[in-house]
Amino acid sequence: MDTFYTGIHYWLVDHPIISQYEWKPYRSPGASPLFVAGAVSAYFALILSLRRFPLLLPSAAALRVVTAAHSLNLCLLSLVMAIGCTLSAIHQTPPDRPIWAVCFPSGGTPPRGPTFFWAHVFYFSKILEFVDTVLILLSESRSRRLTFLHVYHHAAVVVMCYLWLAASQSLFPVALVTNAAVHVVMYGYYLLCALGIRPSWKRLVTDCQIIQFVFSFAISGWMLHHHFNGSGCEGIWGWCFNAVFNASLFALFLNFHFQNYAKKNKIH
Predict the structure, then answer these.
(1) How far is CA 149 from the centre of its chain?
(2) 20 class by beta-carbon count within 10 Å (0-12 exposed, 13-18 middle, 19+ buried)
(3) pTM score over 0.90
(4) CB under 8 Å, gap of 24 or more: what pairs does 155-158 form?
């Protein structure tokens, strides 16, 4: 067991590429506002193009295979990111500052080290998730399934993840781990659906996302307590964007939950 843990720790924390990682503005991949603007603009352009000039629909079998492969990839990647960021945050936490992952020291937390490496991987994984939208647009039920919540979430989360790194934003390790854990469940569900298995716990996916938001608001209160009653937390302006985005997303998820479950229960 010790050998297994040592191997996992090396490949997810101690490997030189990970342990010596450093975010360099305008030099690291995707480390510029122009890249973010270009990625989000390309996403919107892709949606508009596929709606106006739909491609020939692939066969249902081919679409299921692609969806299964994409879901499996993101399910495993989310699991690796959750474990990697957890081990990295523990590794980087100073003995005299156990709340490091919640409140980075103000003015003293450059974006380097294994925790920030996983933030960079997470940032690019959100661009990879644009494929979700493409798969919806290629399916026969695209007009029914593609929602404002889906598009808004996928576009704005890229900006949020960029700010995690650009601002060395406090609290992002907790947000990354919880979000990646929820995505393990979500993409696991999508994978089973693509394989022709309809799990009975579809509602659990939405419930987990709502619980994630409630948890983020609660732990944000803890971070703000340390920020205003201590020496301050790094990247607070990035957190402000994160808080507004999460609040708007939470409201949309609650509406989605009501539309899909509360009304159905009332009808039954």
Answers:
(1) 15
(2) exposed
(3) yes
(4) 155/40, 155/43, 155/44, 156/245, 156/249, 157/126, 157/245, 158/36, 158/39, 158/40, 158/123, 158/126, 158/127
187 contacts 75 by C-beta, under 8 angstroms: yes
Predicted confidence at residue 254, as pLDDT, reads: 80
One-letter identity of residue 61: A
Domain residue spans of the chain: 2-21+28-267
Residues catalogued as catalytic:
153
CB distance 238 to 164 below 8 Å: yes
pLDDT of residue 261: 58
The count of residues in the chain is 268
Structure tokens at 39: 């990625």
**For residue 171, how many other CB atoms are within 10 A of its CB?**
26
Gap between the Cα atoms of 227 and 188, Å rounded: 37
